[in-house]
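Below is how a single chain appears once it has passed through the pipeline. First comes the sequence as given, then the structure the pipeline wrote out for it. We keep one example in the README because the format questions we get most often are answered faster by looking than by reading.
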Amino acid sequence: MGFFGSLDIGASALTAQRLRMDTISQNIANVNTTRTENGTPYRRRVVIFEEKSPSAPFSDYLSEASRDKLVGGGVRVSKIVEDKAPFKKVYDPGHPDADKDGYVNMPNIDIITEMVNMISATRAYEANVTSINTTKSMAMKALDIGR
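Resulting structure:
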């Protein structure tokens, strides 16, 4: 794998982590949304990642042994799914969405979990930026050797 492959993998990770952070932000923003367009409380969303296959078109012409040595092509978001955990019930008889017993179905979002996930996504993003910067530094050092 060359320098550009490393940069492509790092860039795919940055894109995936940015989408993960966007989804977490959306969850946090909707922590008190008791009614969506379909009439139910907001459901927490989770990003699912999967490995991207290498994008080397010439790999089709390599032998089976050579193809096994190819490194993955990075990461991509396969889908964003709704968390099927039950809604939280909060006693608030004055709320417009309260049932006959005075309980309101609240979104299945835990702020602490979302903040931990946000920190995790931020650290992964920073690690991938460091990886890209290291690759760029290696390329610059290789060019300096040629002088």
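The mean pLDDT is 87.

See the next section for the split statistics.
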